Amino acid sequence: MADRYRDILVVELLGGIGDLLMVLPAVHALARRNPGAALRLLTDDPGADLVRGDPAVTEVLTPRRGRTGCERAAVVAALAVRRPDLAITTARYDGIPDLLAASGARCVTDLWRRPPPDERIGDRYLRILYAEGLVSAEDLSVAPWVRLRPDELAHGERTIADLVPPTAARPPVVFVTDSGMAVKLWPRPRWRRLAVALVRRGHPVLSVTPVDAAPVDAAVVALPGMTLRQLAACFRAVARRGGIVVGGDTGPVRLAAAAGARTVGLFGPTLAVRYGVGGGADLQGLPACRHRLPTRVTEQVCWWDARCPLSAAGPACMADIPVYRVVSAVTRLAESGSTAPGRPGRMRWPAG
């Protein structure tokens, strides 16, 4: 790889925390392959806070929300300050690719091109950059990783130490019951039954979001309100105790994996082999659903209003994941004995 770049602009404006985390390995790989480069990342709040202080990122830019076209305006402003010699974007709307191309920079403006249905999105990004000669083969196994400061790590340790008894027989399990979209929600009664099953097995059960019915309330401990970085630090502390985070296809579960925790992901309308977290176990409901469009999820009949053509009671794919499968996945991870976060090939920073 002979080419090296001095100024790199990465535009990630898809709006979700998970979207940012899926592109983060590409950001780290580009920084690794271009030592000394200025790398600017244009992304959305609140996820932007996760990369402030990251040694791979020189500057974090965010659009000024509240007016139409603010994302395009943010790209225009970034280009006006300084023309990059390499520009990467996941955003395909509002003429953003054309703006970058007109800057004269070398551009990769379609990280979504020709996606196979069985390749995870973050891996696809890296593979396209590899095909473009921008990253190396060893970068293909880089996983998302959020760097945290020592004081944040200490705060996460204190928070979890206050909530998890030191005498707990088994590792803690953290629930993320909300998924941002109704179509991705696991039926709420399943969470209550899962909590009962895990507590009986000796797992302390925490929750980022409410589990709202007796007798579970007394057994499930709610995490206090916190920032995304504080939540990441709590996930890191859970990981150090061999704990597991359970939730749907949503940003906080991806954040847990990027903080080093093992995860059990619950997937229905999105296909786990494409959208999976890869942090331990990804469980798929109704894998053969004929209404699922793995590479065009926003066009699915159920996507925007969660009206399932197979069930009037709600998404049949999410209901197809029984409690016992989740318990089995948690048990298998808990009994694996591994508490070390990371998968082979993850790039590690000096600390955090």
TrEMBL record:
InterPro entries recorded: Glyco_trans_9, LPS_LOS_Heptosyltrfase
Keyword Nucleotidyltransferase included in the entry's annotation: no
Biological process annotations from GO: lipopolysaccharide core region biosynthetic process
Molecular function via GO: ADP-heptose-lipopolysaccharide heptosyltransferase activity
Pfam families assigned: Glyco_transf_9
Gene Ontology CC terms: cytosol
Keyword field contains Transcription regulation: no
Record key words, sorted: Glycosyltransferase, Transferase
Family annotation (SUPFAM superfamilies): UDP-Glycosyltransferase/glycogen phosphorylase
Name of the protein described by the UniProt record: Glycosyltransferase family 9 protein
Species this chain originates from: Planosporangium mesophilum
